[in-house]
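Why YgiT-type zinc finger domain-containing protein? Reviewers of the renewal asked for a concrete example.
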Amino acid sequence: MFKTCNCGHSMRLELRKLIHDKRIRIRHVPVYSCQACKKYELLPLIKPHLLRYIASLGHGTERLKVSFADVNEAAYVLREVFRTYVDESTADEEGQALQARCREAFDGRINMLLDLFSYAQSMRDEEWMKQIEGRLEQLSALKTLIPENSGYFAR
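Here is what the prediction returned.
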């Protein structure tokens, strides 16, 4: 889950707070961030869901503080990983340990959702099954970005 910045340095995965239209503060948004030039960009797979979420918040005048992790499975899993990850390793080992933790967390969440899907299927609850499918799609798409040997994550 890394990307090379236009400046040539590596961008790390982080959760950031974004401000939209000076009134909506959205926490826990997965972005690529360059430590060298301070540029950041949304993960391409997250962008469509974030735009739909912002549109659902409306165009009122009240200020809002929300968490993207409350509506996006991948952001939720990453928030939990970053929240519970304890760095007890060297810098080189840190990326590998965090990456392994991310893979483990994504796999665990996918397995839990598959169990829920199976239960919803046994209950013949089509609406619930559709919701779970959407959540599984979010996780599966982002999980494919986690390479086997990369240390480019940040808390």
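Residues 3-143 form one domain. This is the kind of structural detail the renewal will allow us to pursue systematically.
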